[in-house]
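Hey team,

Filing this mostly as a record. A colleague (T.K.) asked me to run one chain through the structure pipeline before their review meeting, and I want the input and output archived in the tracker in case anyone asks later how it was produced. No errors, nothing strange. Just documentation.

Input sequence:
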Amino acid sequence: MTVSLPPLSGKAKVAGLIGWPVSHSRSPRLHGYWLAEHGIDGAYVPLPVQPARVEVAVRGLAAAGLRGVNVTIPHKQTVLGLCDEVDDIARRIGAVNLLTFDGEKISGTNTDSFGFMENLKAGAPGYDATRAPAVLLGAGGGARAVAVGLLDAGVPELRLCNRNRERAEGLAADLGNAVTVCAWEERCAALDGAGLLVNSTSLGMSGQPALEMSLGDLEAGAVVADLVYSPLETALLAEARAKGCTAVDGLGMLLHQGRPCFAAWFGTDPQVTPQLRAYVLSGD
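Output structure:
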């Protein structure tokens, strides 16, 4: 599948992605598809920025007239201190993945919670967060975004399991009484009565150790979501489908988190379609 971008004019809107590295990112392919689909005079470019050069790079990109940038590892926390404005959700997550520039004014937000919840809505349309506890594996940046999204959706209890308990307790302290920390060794037992399991760790990702997780205590009909999307069908999702659970892969979170970014820079609210998924995956 090929996508042809229209030629750029001197008025082209330009956005990009900063991180170190960025060569693995699917975001240029994602935004390139939408630019072509909507015939927008614009471009989205990957911009490798070394950690020691983040401030000069961000301020230079703003001064150069870019509309903004996505921010990925390892810069998501660093750029918080560079923003003139940061919204509440970015402060609660403790990280920024979207910068918009108005002249040299820098504004920051985080669209990862939106991306996760929209992907959950699309992949498990019958899921109601208020009905049952949720279990979340991990306590990193992805886990923070997932936790904020689920708490805002009204989950009555969020059971947090992480290999480093101290880090899990720190996240729980930040997010309030609805978060309960469970020992990593008790992660399977934590599934009792849960309506949702989310893996936000790198376990099960290509090149990483396997996620050792039995779903025996999870009721059939529950939802299992994995933020990993390489491979797209993880062992966790395969077991969930075999058990009769609804399985939600991690690619959709990436696609949906890009929607408000694209809208902020290019003025068009794009949609996530099967054709988009196929195009982004075809870049492997």
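Quick notes for T.K.: Residues 251-266 form the longest helix (16 residues). The chain has nine helices and twelve strands.
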